[in-house]
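Tutorial handout. Part one gives the primary structure; part two gives the three-dimensional structure as tokens.
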Amino acid sequence: MTGSLNILLKKNKVLQPAALIATSYIIIAVIGLHNYLPVSSPGFLLGMIALPFVLQTYAGRPASYRYAWITFIAGLLCFFMPVKTLFFYTVCFALIFVKESFYGRTGMLMPAIVMLASPVFHYLANTFSFPIRMQLTQLAGYIFQLLGYTAEVQGNVIIHHGNEFSVDPACMGLNMITTSLLLGVILIAFYQTKFNRKAGNWRIILYLFVILLFNIIANLFRILLLVLFNIPPESVSHDVAGIGCLLIYVFLPAVLLASFIVRRSPVKEKINESAIPVTISYKPLLFHLLVLVSVSLLVWKVFTTDTFNKFNIPSQQEMAGYSITSPVPGIVKLEKPNALIYVKYIRGFYDTDHNPMICWTGSGYQFEKIQNESIGDKEVFTATLVNGNDKLYSAWWYDNGISHTTHQFEWRWNLVKGSGPYVLVNATCSSKDKLCNEVKTIFQQQTLLPFFKK
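Part two.
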């Protein structure tokens, strides 16, 4: 036998090597990503539910090796930037490669599920929805003024008749954005199967973009209702108003639009899969094994590469007046009687940034009055943190010892251009006056300079 010898197998027997290879990738993912994947989150669970719809829709299409190249590119990026996000995409694209080479080509719905169910999508939604929340707050205040109501806007807070309403991440329905997009994927797959038609990629992209717009509109109406009728955050009416707006302005239009798009898409050619013999040579199988071994070595590199080593952790003498601890790799905690400061390292332009709106929320605090504010001559984010009767005042910004910014795109672009590594600085105090004094001191005395020494 030679490598070019072909083996004719029935379709049901072709499933065996594919299942073994796919199972190997799943085991690798469990080992390498067990602390990364949010397996209990609604987005991840719904993504797993959506997979059978996508697989059923595209069965019977010709085999393809295009995802071999995509897996190679993702793996190469992961080799030079060994972070779990890139490794996650490498494994997912490798699984899609197995599916396409053994079962037939997929459309864009499967990679869409990978993107939407990934932890990085939740991070992006939480981080980049901040300017949207600010604009929605301004727009809601403007609408109230047009209608003749008295409303004052302060950052992400609307004050109406003496009552304050905070437009926080929960009110933006971040989980519902992920949920509605994944339901949109399921709807497209369902109607494609029902009507035996296939929507084009651009139609699907446009459809998902429209769902995002539906979410923004739904949240605007939700804000108007909650503020106008003074509905408190933890009441049943608050949840009813949110669910009602999402049903009326997101889910129902999404169902109708998915049916409309698919009905006007081309009819799929019917193929009898069981009657088609499949030819497999040794070379493709060896190629799959080579990719599998490469991904296995990649998980070892991700585990063993410490990308925080390039940062300097100051000594106690360099940070006089502060006690220094490092609760987890990549985060340094500075404490003194009147202030708590977290310095969070950023490994590169591709990295997440331990946004305080995520970290403090996990500690039970709610963010109120989030805004861009000038303290001294420096622009920073400020917010009030509330947990029951406990109230703290916090500020944060991005710094590399030479420049500071509050803009995500600015520090990422600076890193792409080769600037020094950035950190996220988060200062928290018990009063607003103490916070302002602490931030001014940090900049005037260059308190954090030891973090940027090479």
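Part three, for discussion. Residues 201-228 form the longest helix (28 residues). The chain has three domains: 6-129+169-303, 130-166, 323-452.
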